[in-house]
Amino acid sequence: MPEIDALFESINVRDLLAGHDLNDPTTPLSAPDLRLLINRLESHSLRIKSKVQSYLVAHHSEFSELFSTCQDAVSRTRLISDDVSDVLQLISDRPIDVEIRSVVDEITEKTKEVKLKRESLDLVSAIVGICEALQETKEALKGGRFRFAAERIRELKVVLRIGEEEEGEPLAYVLLRNEWSDCFDEIQEVLAKFMESAVRFELDSRKLRIKLIVGETTGIALSTVLEAMEVIGMLDYGLAKAADSIFKHVITPAVTHASTFAAVEDSSKTSGEITEATLKLDQSSDHKIEDVDGEAIYSGILKVVKFICSSLCFGNVTWIHSFGRLTWPRISELIISKFLSKVVPEDASKLADFQKIIERTSQFETALKELNFVSPSDAEGRLSRYAEDVEVHFASRKKIEILAKARYFLLQCNFTLPQELAMRNSSFKSDGVDVNSSKHMVRLLFTSEMCVVSEAASQLMHLVHKTLEDVCVSSARVASEFYHAARDSILLYEAVVPVKLGKQLNGINQAAVLLHNDCLYLFEEVLGLAFEYRSSFPSSIKEYAVFADVAPRFKLMAEEVLQRQVQLVMSSLQEAIDGADGFQDTHQIKQFESAKFSIEQVVFSLEKVHMIWEPVLRPKTYKQSMCVVLESVFRRITRDILLLDDMAADETFQLQRLIHLMLENLSSLLGSLKSADDASRPLDDLIPSLRKTRKLAELLDMPLKSITSAWESGELFSCNFTRTEVQDFIKAIFTDSPLRKECLWRIDDFSQ
């Protein structure tokens, strides 16, 4: 009703109060304004009512039709409500939904039963089919149709899912699998027997026979047997025994007796058909020719392989591959061990001559690949690789030989000197023997002194020098092996000799001082190796070739061995001096004899050490070591005598005799020390206690005043006597008296 809408929209309060200012919302309306507004609103209301009435009258028919339609809709709604009520009443009286559900469940159950019966029928049909197939397989085996039987076996393997068993499978499948296994074992056994009877080697006649027709009653082609084995996947198993026999009786002689090996092929025919192939092994008449380049070996093996490929494998690539897999690894190892490893050159200069063998080896492997005996994709270039790596094999062999030789030198050496060297004097000539030409005499590199060493050390360094000379003229790979061989040989001395001489090092003997000299010699030699050879080494070796880390070990070992010997000698001498019981009561015969025996033991031990050390040690080392030992002896004897708190006159006389006896017996030893080297330093300076011992012998029969004067003059002090020692010595010899007190006071009052 657009007219009514327009009428309502035309009512505007502002228009009804047009005469009043309504812009200010805070201005209140007056009573006249409100009455005016009410009147005008009533007038508008009457006008609206009139308009609405006029509109309804004008559209009476439309409103009547609308109300009629609404009444019809209400009536139909009531009818539908009644129908729904009737249906609900009917359902509540009889539950039809239960009946419908029951029918649906019954239909579902019947459907499942039908499906299950259909599946069972299919299973039974499959089982029957498998049983029939197994029966056909057995009949085919009996009838000699091996190809057909093998194909059936292969098909049934897939059907029965052999190797893919699952839990809960029908029992029939388990039984069928067992029956299939029986069939497989049977055909495998039959085919294996055929192969065994087909390939035989006769030892007496030296013939390899391959029957092309097998079977006692019905002749079966060998190719058929091989086809059946291939189908069921037992080709490697079936050929294994034949391959082993051929390798043992045919291929092995072709390698080990190549110079006398000759193979002759032959065949037998029946009714114009070849039924047997034969390979006869004859002795070659030209057996004196040595196979230096492998031509006889490779040609002999190649002839055997060609015979196998044609007569046993019938040119079938798969069969040839199978036979090759079974035999080639052993053939290659046999060729390497019996031929290639033995013709590796002994000398680096002959490596170039090995090139011909490398070429023949490569040609041999290429021929085998063309025959499909060796797979091209396989890493079967093992022979060629071995031959091409001849430098490595040569170097490896030489390294083993070098280390074995070094070990032999060290273990065989007994670390003793020849008689003429052991008895020599301080010069290097004895009984006309030129020791400079001896293996035991060497000149030290840095000190230029002559030094006696063991034969093992001399031979070892000769071997090391020769090896390093080879390093300088060898290729990088060979040089590396030689360098490590030289270094390991040196270290071998450190590892072997101290263990070998373990017992000797715990005693006083020549082997120990020889070890000292060896270590000193090795120290200087090893230290000089880098200076001598490094500039000539291949550039790749220079990066890591070093000997400086090895040399200090021998220097340290030399010092330790010598110090240990000195300590052992000193310990032995101290024990001998202990037998003198501090040189007490020597005026008694028994005590004097005991002290004398102790002195004689000391002298004997020193002479023994002198005989061991002097011929071996360098003069300077001998002199220094012996002076250390003598110093310990004289210091101990003088100390023991000076510690005596009471000495009778006879006792001083006997002590003096003992000292003179010792000095007299050691005169030759002391003389050898004076002439040991060219040093001008007096012996008394090297052995301070020697001067003190001699002076002590004088003091034992010297008057009291003379002793006091000797102290005041500084003579006793220069002989390393202390004030306390002199005073105690006077108290032990001289009885208490005014003179002794005066002398003791003078000694105490006098300062050096």
Automatic annotation (TrEMBL):
The Centromere/kinetochore protein zw10 N-terminal domain sits at: 41-134
Q: Name one GO biological process term.
A: endoplasmic reticulum to Golgi vesicle-mediated transport
At the top level, the lineage of the source is: Eukaryota
Which residues are in the Centromere/kinetochore protein zw10 middle domain?
176-408
Alphabetized, the UniProt keywords read: Cell cycle, Cell division, Centromere, Chromosome, Cytoplasm, Kinetochore, Mitosis
Q: Where in the cell is it found?
A: Chromosome, Centromere, Kinetochore; Cytoplasm
- Centromere/kinetochore protein zw10 C-terminal domain: residues covered: 446-575
Q: Where is it mostly found?
A: nucleus
Family (UniProt) = Belongs to the ZW10 family.
Q: Return the PANTHER family for the record.
A: CENTROMERE/KINETOCHORE PROTEIN ZW10, CENTROMERE_KINETOCHORE PROTEIN ZW10 HOMOLOG
The protein's name: Centromere/kinetochore protein zw10-like protein
